[in-house]
Amino acid sequence: MATAPAEDQRRLLDVQALDTRAQQLAHQRTNHPTLARLADLDSQIADLRASLVDSRTRVADLKRELTKAEGDVEQVRSRAARNQQRLDSGSVSAKDAVALTDELASLATRQSTLEEIELDVMERLEAHEEALAKVEAANDALLADKAGVEAERDAAWAQIDEQVQSVARDRATAIDGLDAGLVALYEKLRAQLGGTGAAVLNGNRCEGCRIDLPPGDVAAIRSAAPDAVVRCEECGRILVRTAGAASTVG
After folding, report:
1. Is 30 exposed, middle or buried, given 0-12, 13-18 or 19+ CB atoms closer than 10 A?
2. Cα–Cα distance, 55 to 40 (Å, whole number)
3. Deepest in the core among 71, 123, 131, 237, taking most CB within 10 A?
4. Are residues 163 and 62 in the same domain?
5. Which domain holds residue 50?
6. Residue 230 lies in a domain
């Protein structure tokens, strides 16, 4: 059976308490409520991204379509203006005048058709720009919410990190000077048993596994030499006997 000063074994409980606190802080950091909210916001932003891209693409396409429609109308207007200018000049023959008049009529019809197309594109563009504005506003709102939650997360993490550093300093002080063999055993068990390598024997119960030990085992543990490092028969953790933990062995 390994041995270590009884006082070192009792101090080991302080180390264990600090290690447990460090685990709790790590759990708080990785499971902070803001992380779930950020995941939800990221999901909403991702869902909206497709609509945002589609809406922006549609608006861009309609703007190009409108530019073309405006160009088509302007081309007809310019040709009609030139023809009208030639007629008004009186320098064309009667035959050419008839041809120009016929073409002006045709151009007027063509211009009316193209202006209807232009108006339709303008109306569709206006509707899509309004829809895009709403999607962008929703996206901006989500991004603003995300930035706010990220700031909240960072502030919480900063507080947790300060506590982690404080616990680490306290642990260094608590473990300083402890029996090297006891510390090595403790670290090995802590790694194997979910972070708890030592526990107090409280009455008949091991507070590591929370199991009541058989009276015979408890009697043997309590009768062992004060510097004997005893282990729980159920979980294998170091069992620390303290004056404050009452015995119920009859």
Report:
1. exposed
2. 23
3. 237
4. yes
5. 32-171
6. yes
